[in-house]
Write a structure and sequence with these properties.
284 residues; alpha/beta; 7-stranded mixed beta sheet; 45% helix
Length: 284
C-alpha cells in the first residue's frame, strides 16, 4: 500500500473512531449517521425514518435471499447490516477501518440476537481479506466516497462476489460545475468528510467496467436525498449544540455542520447497481 493510501485509511479510521460514541449518544441511538431518502416531496418523515427508508431501498436493490452471505463494505456501527439480516434472512459480514465501530457494531448485533448471522471486522476495502466468490452480494452505503481509488475497491468487490451477484453502492458526485461562490463549502465537505476524489455520473460506466462488473443501474437520487438530509443534520446540531460541542469538540462540530451545502444543488447523490457477469445457477 502506498503511503498516501495508508494515510487515507488512517484518516478515515480516526474520524470514525471519534464519531462512534458521539453518533450513538446524539444522532439517533441505534441509527447509523448516513443520509436519508424521501420517496416523494410530500413525505413528512423525520430524518431518522428517512435513514431507515434508505436502508430499505438498498435492501430492495440488493435482492438478497434467505441464507445469502452479504458483505457490507464500510459498515459503520452496524445498523444497516442488522436490518439487512432481519429483512432477508441472510448472513452479513461488515468491514470498517474503525476499531471503535467494529466493537460497537458487534455489541448491537448481539443485542439484536443476531450474533450468529451478523459479524464485523477491521479490514481495508481496497484489500479485502476474503476468498474469491465468497459472497452472494456486496453493498457499500456511503463508504466508497472515502476511497482514494474507487476502481481498486470495485475490483475487490467484484473479486469476492459470486458470478451473477449484485454490488450496490452510493456515492456523491458533481451534477454540474460548482460556481465560485459555493466552492468553499464543497471543498470543506470533501476535505473533512468525503476524502476521496470527486466523480461525475458519466464516470461510473467506465469505473464499473474497468472493475470487471456489468452496470445495471446508475441513478441520480439527489432530489430524494440531499437537501432534506442536510436540513435534518443542521436541525439536529442546532437542537442541542452546547451538549454536542462538549461531547465532540467545537472544531469537529463545525466540520459536521453541512448547512452551507443546503443550496448547493450542483453536489448530488448517486445510487449504483452492478453485477458480476457469469452464470448464476440459483433460482431467482
Amino acid at each position: 500500500m502506498s503511503q498516501a493510501k495508508s494515510d487515507a485509511v488512517n484518516q478515515v479510521g480516526t474520524l470514525y473512531d471519534q464519531m462512534a460514541g458521539f453518533e450513538s449518544d446524539n444522532f439517533g441511538g441505534d441509527h447509523n449517521l448516513h443520509f436519508g431518502y424521501w420517496d416523494d416531496p410530500e413525505d413528512t418523515w423525520p430524518l431518522e425514518r428517512a435513514e431507515e427508508r434508505f436502508t430499505e431501498l438498498m435492501i430492495e436493490k440488493l435482492r438478497a435471499k434467505p441464507g445469502d452471505r452479504v458483505l457490507d463494505v464500510g459498515c459503520g456501527m452496524g445498523t444497516p447490516a442488522i436490518r439487512l439480516a432481519h429483512s432477508t434472512g441472510g448472513k452479513v459480514v461488515g468491514v470498517t477501518v474503525s476499531h471503535e465501530q467494529v466493537k460497537r457494531a458487534g455489541i448491537r448485533a448481539t443485542a439484536a440476537g443476531l450474533a450468529d448471522r451478523v459479524s464485523f471486522q477491521y479490514a481495508d476495502a481496497a484489500a479485502l481479506p476474503f476468498e474469491a466468490g465468497s459472497f452472494d452480494a456486496v453493498w457499500a452505503l456511503e463508504s466508497i466516497i472515502h476511497m482514494p481509488d474507487r476502481v481498486q475497491v470495485l475490483r475487490e468487490m467484484a473479486r469476492v462476489v459470486r458470478p451473477g451477484g449484485r454490488v450496490v453502492l452510493t456515492d456523491f458526485f458533481e451534477r454540474a460545475p460548482v460556481p465560485e461562490r459555493k466552492r468553499a463549502a464543497v471543498e470543506k465537505f470533501y476535505e473533512n468528510w468525503v476524502m476521496g476524489p470527486i466523480v461525475r455520473i458519466d464516470d461510473y460506466p467506465g469505473l464499473v467496467r474497468e472493475a470487471g462488473l456489468r452496470l445495471v443501474e446508475v441513478s441520480d437520487i439527489s432530489e430524494q436525498v440531499m437537501k432534506r438530509t442536510l436540513e435534518g443534520i443542521a436541525e439536529r446540531i442546532n437542537h442541542d449544540k452546547k451538549h454536542i460541542d462538549n461531547t465532540l469538540g467545537a472544531e469537529l462540530v463545525d466540520d459536521l455542520d453541512l448547512s452551507d451545502l443546503i443550496e448547493v444543488w450542483e453536489l448530488g447523490y448517486l445510487l449504483v447497481v452492478a453485477e458480476l457477469p457469469g452464470n448464476d445457477t440459483r433460482s431467482s
